[in-house]
Amino acid sequence: MATAMGATALGKKNEGNAARFITRSKAIKQLQVSLPLFRKVCILKGVFPREPKKKVKGNHHTYYHLKDVSYIQHEPLLEILREIRAYQHKVKKAEAKKNPDRATLLRQRSPAYKLDKIVLQRYPKFLDALRDLDDCLTMVHLFAALPAIEGCIEVKRIHNCRRLAHEWQAYISRTHRLRKVFVSVKGIYYQAEVKGQKVTWLAPHPLQQVVTDDDDFNIMLNFLEFYEALLAFANCHLYHSINVKYPPILDPRLEALAADHYALSRYFDANSRSSAWDCQESSLSGSGKVESQQIGPLVDESELRLAQLQHQLSSNEPGALMHLVEDVPGEDEEDNDTRECKKLFKDMKFFLNREVYRDSLLFIIPAFGGIVSWQGDGAPFEEDDDSITHQIIDRPRQDGKICGREYVHPQWVYDCVNARIILPTGNYLMGRDPPPHLSPFVDNDSFETEGVINRAEAEAEVAKEKRKKMKAHEKQHHHELIMELEGVTDSSSISNIDNLSADREEPDHDYEQVEEDNRIMSEIELSRWVRGVIEGMRISRQRKKHLDDVIRQRRRNLRRT
Question: Are residues 95 and 121 located together in one domain of the fold?
């Protein structure tokens, strides 16, 4: 009997949630790694905690699926991370023994890894990667604006984030894929449409970021490590889709002047010219064999030719530098939105003052077909250029204005982009309060409804004032007739009575005006929800009127009795 019970206890298996889920502590013991290393591998592999219906070990534990843990256990990256950890212990040991040569040698021989295979495993299709770019772009733009912190955030990583962000913005601006922009307190929201997928990200304002000691960047840096590889993969694929080589070769002079957008636009222009030159050479070649021999140059020769073409461009020619090249072979067919965005700022030339946020407008204006320059080094044209149509300013000018040029607030550019039309500049002149900057990411029916209701209420107030004046004039005329019949012609008494009659407040129960307001609102085209709200207000007013009539009738009956 005891033997049978022992066999039953040994042969007992876990079933249900106990067999499918495992706690974090057991997962760490099974993988034989530390907690920070376990978090890093989970972030890189895309494994996240689960919420089972029945928590066997209690609610205070974190659970993972057993298949996810076994998926991590067979990952080759896990072994490389263990080797890196062992090398770090060797480096610390060499430093403790005051052997800097050995520590330096160990750092140079430290094993490295790449995340290309993990990116391809998590995103077999490129559209899957585009769907997950929202958080990736937001994180990269955030670290591109942060200052370097010794021992935490390296300068190299910040420069890499800035480079990836500018490369992404250059592609969006080059292909006119930007759709919506909204400036909020948190930062500037952008939305682009790439390959039929809407990508939304947040870029912080260009202010001095204050980093406190309470911030823990370890987990954020793990996410950033994967996001850098993902965004580099996306940029490479997008650049190759328009026949542009990746990574781009930029002018070092413009990079030193922090004019990355300008340098990337020059790179696009030079690359498109080189591709056109290659096509022309291949068409002029004689036989197929000779053509194949001429089209297959070495990589160094092509890069050298590209650099030569880039430096041959005139630095004062805005059409060749800031103008986005049209009819590039290999580019996807443009849809209606792209054509509309491409022609919004066509034949317009903008100049940015020093106080204006330069990076955002350098990204937005070329994305909608405009040409832009700025006040500073490396600009394609100066402020005294006669062909400038709009100058973006954010503070009153001390010197005089140039005739034939519009001086507008930066909000005018954002509102024109969201409205897809060129708005009048009268409300955006310096010294005037610009109109409210509404978000294009929400349905503006509520804002339109509020405007309609406010308009109707204003019209009701105007009509009420007119009726007051008409009644006051009627009373005044009646009083003048009475005084004339009695033979009194004292103008002061008439004016005093007039003022008293005019100052009397009319009762609020103006049911005729309520019906008139309802009629005005019914004539305006509103959404179903707004019509329902207005109908409810109308019914409540009718009920109130009915109750007032009933109360008035009861009072009359009481007086009669």
Answer: no
